[in-house]
Specification:
Length: 575
Amino acid sequence: MFWMRKLSVWDLASTLETQQDTCRHLPRFQEFLRQLYEALKEMDSNAIIERFPTVGQLLAKTCRNPLILAYDESQKILIWCLCCLIKKDPQNSGESKFNSWTRVKGLLSHILSTFRFDIKEVDLFTQVLGYAPTDYYPGLLKNMVLSLVSELRENHLNGFNTQRRMAPERVRSLSRVCVPLVTLPDFEPLVEALLTYHGHEPQEVLWPEFCDAVNEAFLLKKISLPTSAILCLWLRHLPSLENTMLHLFEKLISSERNFLRRIECFMKDSSLPAAACHPAIFRVVDEMFRYALLETDGALEVLAAIQVFTRCFVEALEKEDKQRCQENQRGKESFQQTALKQVDIQLKFAFKTYFPYASPSLVMVLLQHPKDIPQGLWHQALKHISEMLKEVVEDQTHGSYGGPFESWFLFVHFGGWADMVAEQLMTSEAEAEAPEALLWLLAFSCSPGAGHQQRAQTMVEVKAVLSCLMKLLRSPTLSARDLQAAAGEGGEGAPRPPACQQLIRRLLLNFLLWAPGGHAIAQEVITLMAQTDAIMHEIIGFLDQTLYRWDHLCVEAPRSRKLARELLAELRGQA
């Protein structure tokens, strides 16, 4: 049996090699214990002996390995397994033999004492760190942790910087020993001190498995660390940041799909927006979003996630800027503020640091939150954004800004503006034609790779549909058939490109939300529109994103809100 052989090799994990091998296998072994428990709890003693004849030996060896006992939930699962074996009143010789064979009560007592850290196994960790063998009690354990934390930090006495640092080899050894301990509350100060430790070594001193373990525990909310520690983790160990982004993408395509509120909560809990105030972190996160967009051909879920991230990021920047102003007013700087001074200087630079391929003037315009502008002026603001984007995209003299894709990628970051174009076209009071600037912006936002001629054709088709919808808006009666005819569906013309079809659907959905009679035909129209699962999810995403945007912009539209919520609840029930 694989794990029995491993446990025999690990023994008491007394050598560097066996400790390293144990730490590498801890997550897999914990999962094995969990599966073993699921099997044991459904069996009686005879079935256990028949199917797992060596289970007692395996659990006994496990109980003697302090690295396993200290890791995450392994100790708890091990107790569950032992409780499945013990029989208070054996009914037959087999059960009596089973109790004697496993020495279950002794093993349980051993584990429970380990749980209180009132054991000699802690010597394993202290010996590696150079401490003398002794019995360590909880109070002494805390003192040991605090002592190690103080050694990892610089000491400042009377204004003189006297450094008393650990040797790099000892820091690395300490990080290795802490791999199975990262989820224990008593060790959080030590984990934080290791992450924020900065020596003068040319290479990273922390063990990679330690960084992996901390990041996994943080994502699973098994450990609580300040943003400064997480920032240090991601700066010194790029795979941890990449895994955090992959964890986000998994949520986007599974449990949290089209739930922007939940995505926002995850992002804030993950410290991604706050850590992204450091330009290096922002650039990595933004590049992964860029790659995800290209790989998914502009998936709406990824676009929505970018917009949520950007909003949270801008909020974090504003919060950091306010804190810095308050600190400057007080005229005091702690040691930590001094250490981060270089980062602060970087953040005072223009947003060119974060968006190096974008027009600085365009960035500053997009950074204006729509909520800070009177609602009656949104139309003019969008027109100004459209003119600036068009100049960058279609004027060859602006080639230094990276071309159409880079301009579009910048624009979609700011969902407060990007998602309100169709809504503004639908709610515009203009009696005549729709503004060309907004039509261009709408066509560009949905198809940035299109050439000038194709974009112009899209604008013509959208303009025709919009004209029909505006006439229906004043009609005393509405029907789903009228809306279908206005959208030009079922006609004999050439099929529209997918991006153009998506634009038309967005206009129709906005019409249903804002037209006085839209609520009466909304369900029928959506049934006709949602011919595929992809379109169904597109509509759900639109409604979720619209409600999310209205909440943040404090849009007062009770009837439209009520209809959007009802439709969203019904479609989620069908999806």
